[in-house]
Design goal:
The complex is a heterotrimer of chains A (436), B (293) and C (83). Chain A is mainly beta and 436 residues long. Chain A has one domain: Porin, CATH 2.40.160. Helix content of chain A is 5%, strand content 54%. Chain A contains two helices and 23 strands. Chain A is elongated and about 115 Å long. By secondary structure, chain B is of the alpha+beta class. Chain B contains eight helices and 15 strands. In chain B, α1 runs antiparallel to α5 and α5 runs antiparallel to α7. Chain C is flat. The relative contact order of chain C is 0.07. With 83 residues, chain C is an all-alpha fold. Helices cover 36% and strands 0% of the residues of chain C. Classes of the chains: A mainly beta (436), B alpha+beta (293), C mainly alpha (83). Chains in contact: A-B, A-C, B-C. The interface between A and C is large, with 98 and 58 residues.
Chain lengths: 436, 293, 83
């Protein structure tokens, strides 16, 4: 088959000429070229958390990241949060009205009959700053290190962390090893209570305020305490196939020092269930935790499934399981919907007791803090995200969290059998994030 | 959705577009530049795919092919593409024809498929023919049943446009824009005499040996995997629009090295359609080529 | 003064886990994975293991102050007085 030869031109030449005319000399292309002010990426968020009749919190985060070369970044983050409201003090519910002394020793509060005692001592604002530096090191490895600082009116936390990650198999496998050291110090108003000392409550038995103060001071030991934490985190991240990636982490954590919650007490009750006194709690001065964490993300057409499981065990005899599932559903126009569900279960610490029986020997450690008790919790949430006209990402998320405590005691003394001993926890939280 | 890796010559940016793995090999020390260049190439590829892919609904391609004889308004870019296809049709005496896409209804190039019947192929021939397309600067009108398939030039066009934009952005850098094996180099590299595509790139190449190229475009037509084997005869997936069948005795693949990707692409297609005469035809064209048989 | 490595750390547990991880790495992981250009889907922001660090941090703070477990995905230390 002969092809027409243009005069003095080959077919190839003619096509080349036609291509040039198609491509032309385009005027400045529409759409922007790379804007170098995008060197900095910002992420921000605000969360409101509210429990039914109890604590509410507002937390805001602002994070800035500068990536000057591949894997060479600097991140700065600031967090401000503020807590108000009341949380359970650990004292047991009673059929009558109760009065308690505030942790500072200044003032009292009363609790209605048949209500679980909540301490509504005002907690105030906390500010936290973090800096993290990341850079490549050797071939195929990345090192990262950072500092953390958090300050509340009675609490200071400082920490440093370091981490190295090695890439193998054309970046399909990453092994990482990290270490974090923290030192926290606590300076509660009114001083640190002496464990097992009995709460002094002014019911009119003191002739004057000074006598009360003297008695109160006898329950106070040091003015401040601290604790140190060592965390080791090891992990493997593995790309399984084009649509699946998994991560497996092991972490070991050792915290020692002052681990009590100075605001919490345990009630000592008689065989009728009536509280005789409230003792400041006592926890061990050391806690070693280990956890095993696995996560997988899988791409489906138009959506991404994200599932994770964590098992934690420690030397306080607490074991916990956490299963978290999120399903990211892509919608048109850069919008998405992400339902989330989280199920959590923990066993009680060995020294957890909702109250102490009068005739029992006082154990070495005791706490009625429900956060150390046996319970399961469920969170369900829905997140909706969209892209603004200027190409930035926003999202809102609404979640509901509920804890149900398990009563592992078969019966309770006297009046306590007819009262609700374990507090319910029902909370919702709403979050807004903006990335730009 | 673009990923960047550091290499000894600079950076490689990877992404997926037009159902193919795509990459940019960039000779630079600067990570931000490599990211920007890869993003420019990816954005162009995705833009053109969104506009002209026959797999999407409601885009320009779908509007044209569902017009059922009505005139469809077109923009300047679409007009220029149709004009280019028109020139190639005339120069090639009708061998290069974007209306031949309907043949995919009867030709399926999976493993172990059978040849279509002569009758089913003949039924489609009346719908094929660039003469059934009339267009001007503002609109295009197809005879009912006729379809335009931009697949024959889409990737090559995307490579050339991406190269153009990258040259405007960073005129001094040597960048290889490679969309699934159809590639072009913006400028001769500084730190070495030529790009060694089989070695610098990790993309699977359709061609068996690697190509060394200083500047220019490389395009390959045909496929070592997409064909039908029947009665010990190999049927390539490049079909002659006049007969509805592939050329007899055509090579497995034809690779062309030329100035632009569009030019290399059309020549590679024409080479395949020349069948047994492929080498003779291409020699006359004064371009570097390689036929795999 | 921070006690750097408390004597009571159970080193044998850490070493055992490290060995298991290294064996996993050496044996199974080399067959798994993708070619560089096949990382397109994995490069999508929603496929990152922690796709929203801000959200992860906010949740971690809530759960740290209401439950006895923290960390797993990242360092367990709480860094605040809420527990």
């Amino acid at each position: 088959m002969q092809l027409v030869k243009q005069k003095n031109k080959t077919v190839a030449g003619a096509i080349a000429a036609a291509a040039l005319s198609l491509l032309g000399n385009s005027a400045k292309a529409d759409g922007e070229f790379w804007d170098f002010s995008r060197d900095w990426k910002f992420n921000s968020g605000i969360l409101y958390y509210g429990e039914q009749d109890r604590v509410s919190a507002l937390e805001g985060v602002f994070s800035a990241t500068h990536e000057k070369d591949l894997d060479d970044k600097f991140n700065f983050k600031i967090v401000i949060d503020s807590l108000t409201g009341a949380s359970p003090s650990g004292a047991v519910v009673q059929p009558g009205v109760q009065t308690f002394t505030r942790p500072s020793g200044k003032g009292q509060y009363t609790v209605n009959a048949e209500e679980i005692p909540l301490d509504d001592t005002f907690r105030d604002t906390r500010v936290q700053v973090n800096s993290q530096w990341t850079s490549p090191i050797w071939d195929e490895s990345i090192v990262s290190y950072g500092v953390h600082l958090s300050k509340e009116y009675d609490y200071l936390s400082t920490a440093v962390n370091g981490n190295i990650a090695w890439n193998f198999n054309q970046k399909n496998t990453t092994f990482s090893l990290g270490l974090s050291l923290a030192k926290d110090s606590f300076d509660p108003e009114g001083g640190v209570p002496i464990p097992f000392s009995s709460m002094v409550i002014d019911m009119g038995q003191f002739a004057n305020p000074t006598e009360f103060e003297t008695a109160f001071d006898l329950t106070r030991g040091t003015t401040s305490e601290d604790k140190e934490t060592l965390d080791i985190l090891m992990g493997i991240t593995q790309i399984i196939n084009r649509k699946t990636v998994m991560q497996f982490n092991y972490s070991y954590s050792d915290v020692s020092g002052y681990l009590n919650d100075p605001f919490k007490v345990v009630s000592r009750v008689d065989q009728d269930g009536i509280a005789l006194e409230h003792l400041y709690e006592s926890r061990p001065d050391k806690r070693v935790k280990q956890s095993f964490y696995w996560q997988a993300k899988h791409y489906l057409t138009g959506s991404v499934a994200d599932i994770s499981y964590r098992y934690m065990t420690d030397d306080w005899e607490i074991d916990s399981h956490t299963i978290d599932y999120k399903h990211y559903l892509t919608l048109d126009n850069n919008q998405y919907l992400e339902p989330q569900i989280r199920w959590y279960q923990q066993s009680a610490a060995e020294f957890y007791q909702p109250y102490l029986l009068e005739q029992s020997i006082i154990p070495e450690n005791i706490s009625a803090d429900t956060r150390l008790g046996e319970f399961s919790a469920l969170t369900i949430g829905l997140k909706y995200g969209w892209r603004t006209d200027s190409g930035n990402d926003m999202a809102i998320r609404l979640s509901y969290y509920e804890q149900s405590m398990k009563d592992s005691l078969s019966s309770h003394p006297g009046v306590l059998n007819d009262l609700q001993i374990y507090p319910d926890l029902k909370a919702f939280f709403i979050q807004y994030t903006y990335d730009f | 959705m673009v990923k960047i890796d550091k290499t000894e010559f600079g950076f490689i940016g990877y992404f997926n577009a037009m159902a193919s793995p795509c990459e940019c090999l960039i000779e630079t020390e600067n990570y931000q530049t490599a990211l920007a260049i890869t993003q420019i190439a990816a954005d162009e590829a995705w833009r053109i795919e969104k506009k002209y892919s026959r797999y999407l609904k409601n885009n320009v391609c779908a509007q044209i092919n569902q017009s059922n004889g009505a005139a469809i308004a077109i923009d300047q870019e679409t007009f220029k593409l149709l004009d280019f296809a028109n020139t190639c049709y005339e120069i090639s005496n009708g061998l290069f024809d974007l209306t031949s896409g309907v043949l995919r209804r009867v030709w399926h190039f999976n493993q172990n498929t059978e040849l279509p019947s002569q009758k089913s192929v003949e039924e489609l021939l009346p719908l094929i023919g660039w003469n059934l397309v009339s267009f001007d600067q503002k609109s295009v009108c197809l005879a009912p049943g006729t379809e335009i398939d931009f697949g024959g030039i889409g990737k090559e066009y995307a490579v050339d446009v991406a190269v153009q934009k990258i040259k405007e952005y960073k005129p001094d850098l040597s960048v290889v824009v490679n969309f699934g094996g159809d590639l072009r180099v913006t400028k001769k590299p500084k730190n070495k005499p030529k790009w060694n595509i089989g070695i610098d790139s990790l993309l699977i190449s359709k061609i068996e040996h690697s190509v060394s190229i200083g500047v220019g475009a490389v395009c390959t037509s045909g496929d070592t995997e997409k064909f039908i084997l029947s009665n010990e005869r190999r049927y390539s997936h490049i079909l002659n629009p006049k007969t509805g069948w592939p050329a007899e005795g055509c090579p497995k693949t034809v690779t062309i090295i030329a100035d632009q990707c569009l030019q290399a692409g059309v020549l590679a297609t024409l080479g395949m359609l020349m069948g047994a005469e492929a080498e003779a035809f291409l020699t006359q064209q004064n371009v570097q080529f390689h036929c795999q048989r | 003064m921070i006690k750097i490595i408390p004597a009571q750390i159970n080193c044998s547990i850490i070493l055992k886990v490290l060995m298991i991880l290294c064996t996993l790495l050496a044996s199974g992981c080399s067959n798994l994975g993708v070619k560089p250009w096949e990382r397109d889907l994995l490069a999508k922001p929603e496929m990152a293991l922690t796709s929203s660090p801000i959200e992860a941090g906010l949740d971690e703070h809530i759960y740290f102050s209401k439950e006895a477990t923290s960390g797993g995905r990242s360092f367990a230390g709480g860094g605040c007085g809420c527990n």
